[in-house]
Amino acid sequence: MRQIVLLRGINLGPRNRIAMPQLRKLLEAAGFDDVRTYVQSGNIVLSTRRKPEGTAAACQQLIASELGLEIPAVVRTRDEMAEVVRRNPLGSVADNPKRYQVSFLDGEPDPQVIEQLSAAAADGERIEAIGREIYAWHPDGIARSKLWAALAGKGLGVKATARNWTTVTTLLEMAEE
Question: Within this chain, do residues 54 and 117 fall inside the same structural domain, yes or no?
Fold first, then answer.
């Protein structure tokens, strides 16, 4: 089964540095097949018979034991990622894929958290939570967005990592190859 592994917070500045060729070799040695990475921010497409939760746990454990880093991982199957793209609830307003983010969570967030996120949205920003994904449109960019700061923080109550729309659609394409 094709799966997409999304690592949180690697290769951002000097912390949590992981070379993608090294990561591919580690994953292949651990029994994952057809391992491919996309850009340097922890996007991996691979094949495995494991369930997504098992893939996430195995990747986290492997990175901890081999590289000494505690890196959260969130996993989606190819079919789940296809559904994320198909839904595209903000596609009618999000006209710049670099400012359109999807946060991938390892569980559904508490409705109260979604209310707090909605309250943090500035004029023009939009947010839509569906299952284990939160779609967010930041028309003025993410740099000064209070909504983005809330999404990127640890207050969601679940493991999460975000990708822009370009990365989301590219990962789906890679998983379909």
Answer: no
Average pLDDT over residues 70-87: 97
Q: Say if CB 133 and CB 84 are below 8 A apart.
A: yes
Residue with tokens 């340097």: 40
Residue (of 104, 101, 126, 116) closest to 155 by Cα position: 116
Q: What angle do CA 84, 165, 27 make, to 5 degrees?
A: 75
* 3-state class (DSSP) for residue 29: helix
Report the CATH number that the domain containing residue 64 is assigned in CATH: 3.30.70.1280
- For residue 97, how many other CB atoms are within 10 A of its CB? 14
Quote the CA–CA distance of 58 and 162 in Å, as a whole number. 20
Q: Residue 68: which domain range?
A: 2-79
Model confidence, pTM: 0.94
Give tens-digit pLDDT for 29-71. Answer: 999 999 999 998 899 999 999 999 999 999 999 999 999 999 9
pLDDT in tens, 88-119: 999 999 999 999 999 999 999 999 999 999 99
Q: Is residue 171 part of a domain?
A: no
